[in-house]
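Predict the 3D structure for this chain.
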Amino acid sequence: MKITKEYYFQQVFNSGITKIHKSIAVVLTLPLVAVSMFAAPARAPGITLVYTTAETSTSAAVVWNTNTAADSLLQYGTSNPVLASAPQVYVGTQTTYHEIPLSALTPGTRYFYKVTSCSRKGCATATGSFETFPSCPDVVSPVSGSWQKVSSPNVGGATSVNNQLLGVAAISENNVWAVGWAQDPNGPPYTKRTLIQHFNGNVWSIVPSPNRNNDVVSELHSVSATSANDVWAVGFSHNGNAPSRTLIEHWNGTQWSIVPSPSPDSQLNELRAVVALSANDVWAVGHRGGTRKETPLETLILHWDGGSWRQVASPNIPGGANQLSGITAISANNIWAVGSVGGAPLAMRWDGNEWSVVPTQVGGGLSTERLTAVSASAPNDVWAVGQGTGLFTNQTFATIRHWDGFHWTQKVCYAASASSPPEGYEGGGPDAYFTGIVAAASNDVWAVGARGSGPMILHWDGRAWTTITHPRAFPNAAVLRGVAVSSRGSAWSVGLEIEFHSSGSVTPQRTLINKYAP
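Done. Predicted structure below.
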């Protein structure tokens, strides 16, 4: 296969995994010192692209290209860097395309490799790593309960206007909050007002929430609570012109009020997620920017210390828009935030002193990917979800990633009943994406989003992800935006629903709330 310059740069930028298969005429296992040289090309070889493909639980293929004909040597193992005594595979054929298949690998293992191509003019080397898929069960036990749609109110009454719920937090079985936005039924169609709803154990009701004077758009995207009288909601607002400003509201047990918060940029200041650890330890994340050409968007992280909100320094990767969309806290000194930078996923961690970027790569078969939500049950058990675009298609695919205490992996198990994705793609798809996740325990994780025009719910039981049947009234469209669990194992998911009529008319967006009862 000829690798063009444009193709090469696309692969390097996106870290995509390309499905390319060729046969190898001769494969020999030799010690490194036995590498022999053949006809010399015009100049020393250079490796222009290296990647892995065709991963299974026990096999993979390492592929690389050279700009001149050379031989092929692969060393691989579980140590990094690769040991000199590691297994080796040698192919003496002089070629510019190199592919070496590996078999009898261990399931669920990260391998590191070193490739070497030599001619009489010299040698070139490159390194990389790949993961084998874990050994997945064919069948898993079904969940014990079921999801049911519950009645939820909407702003507007007889005047139908758009309503959306974007975040949910469960304090207890009888104390659940959901936040979002709704159009002002008495204003122009572009106006949006904060929307906050509460479940008291019997019914959901709209709770009055403030909006800044003169702002025409006010949205709440996330909610988190430490107790019945300490609840936080975050989002943004603007008056129709720049800048947008961070919006943080607090429930003290009696009423919601706006709490002053920094908006450091002159263009955009938006919060997308919040996590509350205690009354004096709350974090909110989002993005800022619009004024610097070299960095269109930058990460924005705010912290509440019990007295005020302040901005905390956060890293950014040059060359692309940096955005944070989700946050989770394991402890005060172990907090994760996820989002995207350019077309790549972004993950960073707080260690008690500073935020630092933790490396991630675009998942297999995808050209772009972004993470939208994150949740953790332990330091070595963190889940993140999002969406990506197919390498050779514009379709959207849902993605799931897991942190095992050492690195992020996209190799997770899907039960046979989980509508498994096409080979090489993660999560569900095509035309699917995740927007929310909650990890109640290592064997009890819920992920929500949409597939096509309907809601999508998956559950992790400690061994595999399984697609869960959910309520839906066809042909209505619905999207789930957030999910939360309570102390007794029940779960809540929130989002929006659109009703289609036989006349061809479509109703405005309406709030959607589902409950899982074990």
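The mean pLDDT is 87.
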